Amino acid sequence: MIRFENVGLRYGMGPEILQDLTFQIEPQSFQFLTGPSGAGKTSLIRLLFMSLRPTRGLIKVFDRDLSVIGKQELPKLRRKIGVVFQDFRLLDHLTTYENVALPLRVAGKDEADYRSDVVDLLKWVGLGDRMHVLPPVLSGGEKQRAAIARALITRPEILLADEPTGNVDPPLARRLLRLFIELNKLGTSVIIATHDIALLEQVDARRMVLADGRLSIFD
């Protein structure tokens, strides 16, 4: 589904922060992306989501070479990928329900067809009583859960989650991890960027470890 070959990334004229990354993300796979703070996990997530172009190397997503894909084609590819960013990126003028339903609205779906799915998912992540409030009223943990629900609502082929349990307590972190596992069983490839050791130890999954700009993989 995703293939990197000798990918490097630098910002401006600075040194490469990611060097010679070569790996593949297989269909229906589950992996953790980990490493020390500042190792480049968020930059790698952005490369995977195609919101950032590499300085060098080859990236293929769904068998398409990103170096020859026009900007007008990227949104269609991105619809196959759900992403949870550290900064949530919720729209403050939309309610929690409207934020989670937004990807379905943009895709032209009829609300009558998705309303119950959105409501059920919000209840599952513990936001059933917060679906009609605006993001500025939500706590950090509630915003995190809303962002996760929005990423999951389309049942994406790939889920990218950048520190998805960073603002929730351990019991809810375990619950969210179970949700990711169930989504993976339904066929979604899952990539979770985290430095939470307790989270890593709960699943026997592939580990992709970033350190000093280089990637090591432990299956």
Automatic annotation (TrEMBL):
Keyword Transport included in the entry's annotation = yes
* Subcellular location field: Cell inner membrane; Cell membrane
Some GO term, biological process aspect, for this entry: which one? Answer: cell division
* Entry-linked SUPFAM superfamilies: P-loop containing nucleoside triphosphate hydrolases
Pfam family name, one? ABC_tran
Chief subcellular site? membrane
The chain positions of domain ABC transporter read 2-219
Q: Which UniProt keywords apply?
A: ATP-binding, Cell cycle, Cell division, Cell membrane, Membrane, Nucleotide-binding, Transport
Keyword Cell division found: yes
- What's an example of a GO molecular-function annotation for this chain? ATP binding
Protein's membrane topology: Peripheral membrane protein
Role played: Part of the ABC transporter FtsEX involved in cellular division. Important for assembly or stability of the septal ring.
Q: How does it assemble?
A: Homodimer. Forms a membrane-associated complex with FtsX.
Q: Which NCBIfam families match?
A: FtsE
**Known PANTHER family for this protein?**
CELL DIVISION ATP-BINDING PROTEIN FTSE (PTHR24220:SF470), IMPORT ATP-BINDING PROTEIN (PTHR24220)
Q: Which family does it belong to?
A: Belongs to the ABC transporter superfamily.
Please report the name of this protein according to its UniProt entry: Cell division ATP-binding protein FtsE
Q: What taxonomic classification does the UniProt entry list for its organism?
A: Bacteria, Pseudomonadati, Pseudomonadota, Alphaproteobacteria, Hyphomicrobiales
